[in-house]
């Protein structure tokens, strides 16, 4: 164990099932990233424009957080025209999916407000991302 850390080195150096718990919890430590991931999990896929509306924050802020989720391997992307859609990475280990499932099951209040805003966006006659 490193004298500067209370975490045994093997927990940092040996990722579990190809995905490090340190990376996962760092990525989820930001509220916007956590809620974004839970929303994407629930809705199957979302675009930056939808998340911007759901959170009422700027597009660059949402994009910056999505880039972190993408770079850590938590989300997959698909480009459709000028828009990029984000979904849960289908190659995530089962233990990561269980963490997301448990977090969502016990913290539904986290996504209630942004989910309502997404619902209102879906009810508009214009397409979601145009």
From TrEMBL:
Residues 12-111 form the HTH arsR-type domain. The keyword Metal-binding applies. One of its GO terms (biological process) is response to arsenic-containing substance. GO terms for molecular function: DNA binding; DNA-binding transcription factor activity; metal ion binding. InterPro entries: ArsR-like_HTH, HTH_ArsR_DNA-bd_dom, HTH_MetalResp_TranReg, WH-like_DNA-bd_sf, WH_DNA-bd_sf. Keywords: Arsenical resistance, DNA-binding, Metal-binding, Metal-thiolate cluster, Transcription, Transcription regulation. It comes from the Bacteria. The keyword DNA-binding applies. Binds arsenite and regulates the expression of arsenic efflux pumps. In vitro, also binds antimony and bismuth, but not arsenate. This is HTH-type transcriptional repressor AseR. It comes from Marinobacter litoralis. The gene is aseR.
